[in-house]
Design brief:
The structure is a single chain. By secondary structure, the protein is an all-alpha fold. The chain contains six helices and no strands. The mean pLDDT is 85.
Length: 105
């Protein structure tokens, strides 16, 4: 976790010591979203650059131009229904909160 927080996210050691586990995960989620958004923009630029040079009959999507690691996750998430996804998220946060309680004791 230190590698990600200190290296990738640029946090200081003091910030890492003071942050709660839940806040760290929320911060990491936001950081990953910014990173992902940058890759999505790159893919769209590539798609826009290539599209004029393809045949009119070709239906080229941005995902066809550049596949990204989370594309398979998106397909799986689309299959999962909303209630099941909510249950998974709730279970994850309950587990994290339980771990935090153990550490505090």
């Amino acid at each position: 976790m230190e590698v990600i927080a200190l290296g990738e996210m640029g946090m200081t050691e003091q910030q890492l010591k003071e942050i709660t586990l839940r806040s760290l995960f929320n911060k990491l989620e936001g950081f990953r979203k910014l990173e992902r958004d940058a890759w999505e923009r790159t893919r769209m630029v590539m798609w826009a650059a290539i599209t004029p040079h393809t045949k009119k009959e070709t239906k080229l999507s941005p995902m066809d131009v550049m596949e990204l690691p989370w594309d398979t996750d998106i397909k799986e998430d689309q299959k999962m229904d909303a209630k099941e996804a909510a249950k998974k998220r709730k279970a994850l946060w309950e587990k994290i909160d339980a771990e935090k309680t153990k550490i505090a004791m």
